[in-house]
Amino acid sequence: MTNTPSTNKIVKSIAKVGYITKGILYCLIGFLAFMAAFNLGGQSSQNNTDKEGVFQLIKHQIGGQILLGGVALGLICYGIWRMIQAFADTEEKGNKAKGILIRAKFFLSALVYSSVAWLAIKILTGNGGSSGDSNKQNLIQSLLSKPFGQWMVGIVAAIIAGIGIYQTYYGLSEKFKNHVDKSVSGNYKNLVLTTGKVGFVARGCVWLLIGILFARAAILSSSSEAGNTAKAFEFLSEVSYGSYLVAIVGLGLIFYGAFNFVRARYENFSVE
User: Fold this and answer.
1) What is the DSSP string of the chain?
2) String of b and e for 246-268 (b: at least 16 CB within 10 Å)?
3) What is the tens place of the pLDDT at every residue in 167-204?
4) Chain centroid offset of residue 38 CA
5) pTM of this prediction?
6) Most C-beta atoms within 10 A of its C-beta, which of 10, 135, 184, 206?
7) 261 close to 210: Cβ distance less than 8 angstroms
8) Residue 165 — φ and ψ, nearest 5°?
């Protein structure tokens, strides 16, 4: 990538739009989860308290199609920024094993959020819906039907749970501060610490719950046990004081969304 002031300005704009959109997405997921915890507005843990649910919510607002189109574009911007991070090595991770692993994580993140953007586009055009979850279930069932299928799904479960543990550690250790301009101080610094710590711990909890669901799918050899964020909230709601736990995690995801706004404001997005 040619490194010029105009290029940096474009990249910075793309990254900011991406993080703002990601923040909105997580704030809305957290909002839906909190509503579901206490059955507010007809929302429940059995409903889509996930990205698809957010897209459906946006679509049915006044001007919803325009808003959803904007969200899809913002998620594409986030995917582009992650690609830039991976290939331009904006964080100077290098080409050694650890650096390649981190850059591969950026690349994987780009693919994931590009697929989320594609889901938003499909819902916008009326071609999306719960079929995506059905396809996921079919994929897991296909995997379970193969030799050592339960072990393979178990490995996936362990990886997902590992991500959850790392996200929790990342929040509690305050390593997320590396992403924000060190010049931030005072009340803004407290805002960074609070939104980051609570947000990453909540996100880690969701990943752990999804990992548990995949582990159950492996143990019981049943693809219906696995699931996404909505299924994780449904699972959590069934334990003692589950409604309160869902509400707490939902609020935590709102904090995570807010941290993405902080990153959009204070992170250095230069490709130098």
Assistant:
1) ----HHHHHHHHHHHHHHHHHHHHHHHHHHHHHHHHHTTGGG--TTS--SHHHHHHHHHTSTTHHHHHHHHHHHHHHHHHHHHHHHHH-TT---SSHHHHHHHHHHHHHHHHHHHHHHHHHHHHTT--STHHHHHHHHHHHHHHTSTTHHHHHHHHHHHHHHHHHHHHHHHHTTGGGGGS-TT--HHHHHHHHHHHHHHHHHHHHHHHHHHHHHHHHHHHT-GGG---HHHHHHHHHTSTTHHHHHHHHHHHHHHHHHHHHHHHHH------
2) bbbbbbbbbbbbbbbbbbbebbe
3) 999 999 988 888 776 667 666 778 888 899 999 999 99
4) 23
5) 0.88
6) 206
7) no
8) -65, -40
Structure tokens at 189: 């610094």
User: Token digits for 193?
Assistant: 């610490």
